[in-house]
Each structure stands twice: as C-alpha cells, then as structure tokens.
Amino acid sequence: MRKSLFVTVLLTVACGMMWILFLAATHRSPVLDAGEMVRVEGGEWIDSDQPDRKIHVQPFLIDKYEVTNAQFARFRPDYKFPEQQEDFPVTNMTWEEAAAYAKWAGKQLPTEAEWELAAGVAENRRYPWGKEKRAPDLKDAKTCQKVGSYRANLSLAGCYDMEGNVWEWTADTFSQTTAGAMASGAAAPQKILKGGWQFKKIVAPAAIKEQITLDPQKGYSYVGFRCVRRLQPGQNQ
Length: 237
Prior knowledge:
The chain has 237 residues and is of the alpha+beta class. It folds into two domains: 32 residues; 197 residues, paralog of FGE (formylglycine-generating enzyme) (Alpha-Beta Complex), CATH 3.90.1580. Helix content is 27%, strand content 17%. The strands form four sheets. Strands 9-6-5-10 form a four-stranded mixed sheet. A three-stranded antiparallel sheet has the order 1-4-11, covered by helices on one side. The protein is globular and about 45 Å long. About 11% of the residues have low confidence.
C-alpha cells in the first residue's frame, strides 16, 4: 500500500515537473529570444513608387524583435524603465541614441530598403502578412505591447511587429530635408521611420511602403527600433 502510494506521488510530481517545463518552453517571455536575428537574402526589385528605379540590397541579418528595455539597459546601465516591462520595446530614444546602441551591439540601423525587404516588399506584399488590410484593436494600438505580441503580423523573413506596436527608426534621411524640417520646426534633417500605426479616420497598420519622418534629436513614446548586421556575399553571420 505504501509502495503504491509512493509511486503515485512520484508520478504526480514527475508529471507536474514535465508540465512546468512544457509551459516554460512554449510560453516563455519573448525577451529570452529578443537577441535573435534572422537572415534576409539580398534582393533586387523595381520601386513601385518610381518604376524607373531599381533597388539592390546585399544580404543582412535583422533583429527578429524590436530592441527591448532590458537590452537597452545592458548598453546604458543607468536607463530606467517601468517594472515588468523588460520585454517591451525601448521607446523615447532619439535617433542618435538608437544609432549608438546599434554601434555598441556591433550592428547598424536598417536602411529603408533593408527594412522593406525584411517586411516582404520583394514578394509584392502590401503588409508583412499579405495584401489584406486588418483593423487592429484600438486599445492595443494606443498602448505599447510586449515584443512579439502581434504574432499574426509575422513577416515572411521571420520578423515580428513590423506592423503595429511602435514606429521604427531607420538609417535614412528624408530626401526633402528642407521642406520636412520647415514643416515640423525641426532643427535637424528628418529621419525616416517605418512600421507603426496610422491614426487617420480609423486606426490601421501602415503599409510596408508607408513612412513617417521625425526629428532625430527628439525621443517619442511611440517610436522604437531594431538593428541589422550587414553581410558580405557568402557570409553567414
């Protein structure tokens, strides 16, 4: 009787441990994987906005997720963020601060073309998931979410949150610098951002080709970033 009871208890404990391990493996916080990068093969395509312009991009690695608070705190130990938001996108960073983090991590901010390629522009997609428009939940759109929250927005390359969550700094400067700076009162040439929410008549994710421009010397609560590492042909990492 005692032996049977002991075996039952042992099996119960073993099953409980296996269940805990299963939950840990399938529901772990995205921050555990936040440093992962995915490879994007170089490509060449015709710019749909300028049919006479051919865009060529070399192979690169790009962050699977937007850079998190926890990651940025490793770069700048004095950086403080709200409790339990380790795996939220770091925001309120100027373009210069984002570029400094990328350099520290041995990476770079993506060009607009690199960002678009990772999002699926070469596959003629309007959005990372395809061509259909999706209406987001207004509550989700108004607040920043954990990285990886918009799993249905996964790009073909394997990047999360390339539409929704936060807008992302790119390396590129807006070509109409003077007009952009005068319109916003910015003291510096505007930088291009990709992939956030568009708040017009209704809330909607920005299409891959859509962009906004902002002053690189300012930080914004709705702006974050992700990084790339450029590769030479034949190089894996």
